[in-house]
Amino acid sequence: MIPLVHDLSDETVVVFGGGPVGARKARRFAREARTVVVSPAFADRDFGDAELVRAAPAPDEVPDWVERFAPALVVAATDDDAVNDAVVAAARDAGALVNRADRSGERDAGSVVVPATVEDGDVSVAITTGGASPALSKHLRERVEAELAGAGEMAALTAELRAELKASDRSPAERRDAIRAVVRDPSVWKALRTGDANPRREVARVIRDTQRGDS
To answer: With a cut of 50, which residues of the chain have pLDDT below it?
Structure first.
């Protein structure tokens, strides 16, 4: 499986299953897309902003539900193997991606795994074990969270810096070296994370140092 980033803006995700797993999936996708959860009952969990539809479609009725919502992604998260099988088949027939939450390991074509994610501004890190060990994904996510602090602000800062340097008379190699030096400088990171210093002042210092190194 190859990790990809998929834009679900203006798309629909349908989750079959209202248990704890379905609730977790719904919370994740409802932040990015219209999300509909179809289930005969719903666990006492947070489903985010997902739409909850109380229904218990039989396996032969699942294709009609998929066709009704025309989703980009379908999640099979029920406790009924036959229904989950029907969800996967209907999603594939409809050309939608499918996430089967009750199985790990080998996957069919068109299947996706929902990774554990850490986000800071526009910076995202996704961790997946291919569905083999969600516990490990969660543990690694917790370790990465501390390292990612300030990354969103660093991305915004260096985007501005790239534009400024591009408008200068610096060569592409000089611009590249300056950006790399800023990204790797501990003082810039500390300024972004703590606010004890002015990040822009630290950036100016780093760039001056790179100029001295070039001369």
So the answer is: 215
pLDDT value of residue 87: 96
pTM of the model: 0.77
Conformation bin of residue 48: beta by default, left when phi > 0, alpha when psi is -120 to 50: left
Query: 3-state DSSP call for residue 165?
Result: helix
Read off the tokens for 162. 């790239």
User: CB under 8 Å to 22, separation ≥6 — which residues?
Assistant: 15, 16, 37, 39, 43, 47, 75, 77, 78, 101
Q: How far apart are the first and last CA of the chain?
A: 47
- 35 Cβ neighbours under 8 A, 6+ residues apart: 12, 13, 14, 15, 26, 29, 48, 49, 50, 51
Say if residues 51 and 37 touch (Cβ distance below 8 Å).
Answer: yes
pLDDT, residue 34, reads: 97
Instruction: Name the DSSP letter for residue 61.
Output: G
